[in-house]
Amino acid sequence: MSFFGLDCRRKKEKEEERHLRANDREFNLTFQYATNAIKTSKYNLFTFLPMNLFEQFQRIANAYFLFLLILQLIPEISSLSWFTTVVPLMLVLTATAAKDAIEDFNRHKSDSQVNNRQVKVLMDGQLKSEKWRNVQVGDIIKLENNQFVTADLLLLSSSEPLSLVYIETAELDGETNLKVKQSLTVSGDMGDDIEALAAFNGEVRCEPPNNRLDKFTGTLIFKEQKYSLDNDKILLRGCTLRNTEWCFGLVIFAGPETKLMQNCGKTTFKRTSIDRLMNVLVLWIFGFLALMCIILAIGNGIWEYQKGFYFQVFLPWPESVPNSAFSAFLTFWSYVIILNTVVPISLYVSVEIIRLGNSFYIDWDRKMYYPRSDTPAEARTTTLNEELGQIKYIFSDKTGTLTQNIMTFNMCSINGKSYGEVLDFAGQRMEITERTPKVDFSFNRLADPKFVFHDHSLVEAVKLEILEVHAFFRLLSLCHTVMPEEKKEGELLYQAQSPDEGALVTAARNFGFVFRSRTPESITVVEMGETKTYELLAILDFNNVRKRMSVIVRCPEGKLSLYCKGADTIIYERLHPACKTLKDVTTEHLDEFAGEGLRTLVLAYKDLEEGYFEDWRARHHTASTALEEREEKLDELYEEIEKNLQLLGATAIEDKLQDGVPQTIEQLAKADIKMWVLTGDKQETAVNIGYACNMLREEMNDVFIISANTAEDVREELRNARRKIKPETIEAEPIFEVKQPKNKSAVLPEDTVEGEYGLVINGHSLAYGLEKSMEVEFLRTACMCKTVICCRVTPLQKAQVVQLVKKYKKAITLAIGDGANDVSMIKAAHIGVGISGQEGMQAVLSSDFSFAQFRYLQRLLLVHGRWSYIRMCKFLNYFFYKNFTFTLVHFWYGFFCGFSAQTVYDEWYITLYNLVYTSLPVLGMSLFDQDVSDRWSLEYPKLYEPGQLNMYFSIGSFIKCLLHSIYSSLILFFIPYGAMYDTMRDDGKDLADYQSFALLAQTCLLIAVSIQLGLDTAYWTSVNQLFMWGSLAIYFAITLTMYSNGMYLIFTASFPFIGTARNSLNQPNVWLTILLTTILCVLPVVAYRFSRTELRPTINDKVRYKVSKSKHAPPPQATRARIRRTSSRRSGYAFSHAQGYGDLITSSRYLRKNMATFSPRSKTNAKQPGTVLKTYRAVKDTVVDKTL
């Protein structure tokens, strides 16, 4: 049972196998399976206060201040009033609790929104509307079109023919293209018969809950028959039902046990490197505090033994103090209370306010707002801002993150002429922008309105009926396995096996060759407005060895033709010798296309003689029915007929990147940030994107491909790569060893590399590389490379790669993705970024920051991240300085007050110093300071490097701050002490009393630390000015008020400094002392900074100098024109295309003749070509190469 939100049930044993029975809640409840309710919140109304206070007091500083409060309640050792600790502590606890409550309230709202969605559940023979939270394992539920899938379901039946359903998996993998699932025939026959479904009592035995999105194993036992279950019969929570009127499903996994929630992984509390360093420094500070207290306690013991013992006539010891040793013991605790300001409690409140303010800047940044989807950037956590300024490694998904998952027909080469470029009147190439005139396809009523092309000369060539151009597009309209759907007259929708195929057929459609419909024996094409039907005689299908596909058709005039498309290296081997000149020209065009990162394909054709084809066809039939060596015999026949081809040209498809991706990656590389791409895509696709994004370049010394299938081969390939990059690392291998002390992470040394290298590794090789015995070898080789691309990786491997870098590299990592398959990676990294604005939002829900476009990452890091880091470092350095200085004056004073634990300042000054007098000025600097503007930050990415090296706040900078504080405290104590010693007022009265000295010392301190803050501030605003001068004004106003006669008369015990302010601050020597003290405090800082800037300027100093000399800000970053280059590297769909399904197309089992138009929801959908495609995808597991 659950009590006050706490799980009080007996701990459930680890599940080895799931066993459930449909429509039998009583049976399923015995296994204590999770319900469908999800819970991401931490507290409820009753547990909030105790749990939150417990968490807050786990912070060392909070527990320390609680301990101080207890000490202050002991009269024998307390020299300060209790309110000096209670007020700040209550403020900190209240502010933090309020922030936690707001965040948890938002989580409750999100949980409630999801848990209270409605779904129809089959109960007691009727469909009843139930909330998601009440759905249980074994329930049968009904989903309708466009509904979210409630839980992980076994598909039972659907409204579509053959019990198919079409689902969108954007929540899982960021992809918006539809996937197809199909139920078992035995359950599919039940349809929507409620009685049959209510009587269904099948038992399922399957795998326990896990995070494998692409795998499911189980069995269904129904009517004493056993049926195998796999992933094609499972609908996962987070998917959306599309193009399906209804379906019924059996709940297998619910709530936290669904694969979606399992992939979310364990939410860990992320702390910044500065937080971790702060924890170490706080321990150091405690040690320093203990040392000071011990010194002063020893001093007290000696003083009491030598002086105090004989002074008891005038100052007797308390009855509880028997001797000087016990007096020293009590003094130790008294000084613990007095010197506690070395760890000011207001520090943590200020840190939270600064982080919150910098988070708002991200939320409010209009330059990170994406208007198309109305999506602003969002800082989903407020505790990690400064770590954005320290990123060294970025791990990125590909599909939906770097790319739009859209293929566009950009260029082509036809009969030796290149099309697609836009030229000016002088024949010079023009950059294509949104303002570039688009080709008008209004002449074609069947054109796709979304298709865009800019080269008008290609349309003119089509209209002029140039034979080669018509043959080119005729080939594209015939040689494919695309299925058309025509919901309304003229509204064509193509369902393609790959996006490339869809882009090519769409291009042919717009240029006047519209693929309209197909049957097993024919293809109907509308050519320039005229409908023609080609007899489809054979499909020579694609596979990974052939890397090409062909069709043999008979045109309406009776001519036989073979049309072929494929990889250039494959097609070139089969061309007629007469094509040599055209081949050379086409090769030049292919080099240009490949140089721009486009995916290329070569087209060729051949006219066939009737007699030869009939003979070949007979032999083909014999081979296709052979019982032995069928594939080999078919390949020989394909080789025979696909010879002496006539070259037509080549196509160039762009795997469309998100806007600004190459420029963003280039900027991040200049900031010395390493980019790793972790994708579930095929190797060829990922490598192509690598070149398109400029992560991989032709100019690189080498790009290593790791694709071995055994552990030893993978190790050898990694070592060979490292041997080529830096041979001495292999030779010194026996010496190199990663020492990993207990409970600490090992750190791999950085290897300096000459030249640039890339590394591409596929999933099965990566599995070996992540093994314990090889992980160091893999990581060391990978870190020597400028770019690393991991292909075919699972969600778990993505997280493992991130954790490997975190384990062995002293570096901050960032992971960015857009799908549920990226969630584990996002949670594993120090910083997780989700791409929002798409259909899939699972990555965003698990991320720390989110925005709509990858290009905003450079602004997040180079502007907001860098500013946040610099502001936090300045704040911490200054805060420690002002508090160390404040506290050390107490230390020096102890030597002059008999180590009596008397405070040098007024108690009210001690209380208000951090809360009022110095809080707003430092917050003003920490919220508004900029060393340079955002444009200069983007102009000079090198400004980012100091954050990666922890140059602005580290143990070294902390020690410098401590030394600076010791110097300042000596000045602030001894100069006022010397100036007040035996000093007279101008009217002859004595000025050298304790209260006057205290006032002078505290005034000198406040003015000195305020000027120091002014020196640290690089960017002044009206708010900074107001906070700075306002705080000083408030100090003098409060001081004059508290030290007035009226306050003394009303609260005599609380305000003993009567008249001190007016008697001291009207003396010229007091102001001269303040001036001298301030100059002596500030002078070394000014001298040091001037010398450093002149003799050893940092990149920051150089840029700021350039900014000061520049009259104007740098112009906004312009989108640069592509540099025209060529490449011998080819990237074509023919290398990455999945096994074709030509056999299905030519099978009359699924396709019927004489089909015209069709609707996806038609009751006659069994005759629908679009359905055929989806049917085949569901039935044949070799069709679609699923992206992880």
Structural summary, described in words:
- By secondary structure, this protein is an alpha+beta fold.
- It has a nine-stranded mixed beta sheet, sandwiched between helices. A nine-stranded antiparallel beta sheet has the order 19-18-30-29-28-27-26-25-24, sandwiched between helices. A six-stranded antiparallel beta sheet has the order 5-4-6-15-7-13.
- Helix 28 (856-894) runs antiparallel to helix 30 and helix 33 packs antiparallel against helix 38 (1068-1095).
- The longest helix has 39 residues, at 856-894.
- The protein starts with a strand and ends in a 9-residue tail after the last helix.
- Mean pLDDT is 83; it is low at 1-11, 734-744 and 1148-1188.
- Pfam families: Cation_ATPase (PF13246), PhoLip_ATPase_C (PF16212), PhoLip_ATPase_N (PF16209).
- Its EC number is 7.6.2.1.
- Its cofactor is Mg(2+).
List the helices and strands and how they pair.
Layout: E1 2-3, E2 6-7, E3 18-21, H1 25-29, H2 48-56, H3 60-72, H4 83-115, E4 118-123, E5 126-131, E6 140-144, E7 152-158, E8 164-168, H5 170-173, E9 178-182, H6 185-188, H7 194-199, E10 203-206, E11 218-222, E12 225-229, E13 234-235, E14 240-242, E15 246-253, H8 259-263, H9 273-306, H10 324-338, H11 346-364, E16 378-379, E17 391-396, E18 403-414, E19 417-419, E20 422-423, E21 429-430, H12 456-463, H13 467-478, E22 483-488, E23 491-495, H14 499-510, E24 513-519, E25 522-527, E26 530-540, E27 548-554, E28 560-566, H15 568-572, H16 580-595, E29 599-608, H17 610-624, H18 630-641, E30 646-657, H19 661-670, E31 674-678, H20 683-692, E32 702-706, H21 711-725, H22 727-731, E33 757-761, H23 763-769, H24 775-783, E34 787-790, H25 795-808, E35 812-817, H26 823-828, E36 831-835, H27 842-845, E37 849-851, H28 856-894, H29 907-917, H30 919-928, H31 934-939, H32 945-948, H33 955-980, H34 994-1016, H35 1022-1042, H36 1045-1050, H37 1060-1064, H38 1068-1095, H39 1099-1109, H40 1133-1136, H41 1142-1145, H42 1169-1179
Parallel strand pairs: 17-31, 17-35, 31-34, 32-33, 33-34, 35-36, 36-37
Antiparallel strand pairs: 1-2, 3-10, 4-5, 4-6, 6-15, 7-13, 7-15, 8-9, 8-14, 10-11, 11-12, 16-37, 18-19, 18-30, 20-21, 22-23, 24-25, 25-26, 26-27, 27-28, 28-29, 29-30
EC number: 7.6.2.1
Catalytic activity: ATP + H2O + phospholipidSide 1 = ADP + phosphate + phospholipidSide 2
InterPro entries: ATPase_P-typ_cyto_dom_N (IPR023299), ATPase_P-typ_P_site (IPR018303), ATPase_P-typ_TM_dom_sf (IPR023298), ATPase_P-typ_transduc_dom_A_sf (IPR008250), HAD-like_sf (IPR036412), HAD_sf (IPR023214), P-type_ATPase_IV (IPR006539), P-type_ATPase_N (IPR032631)
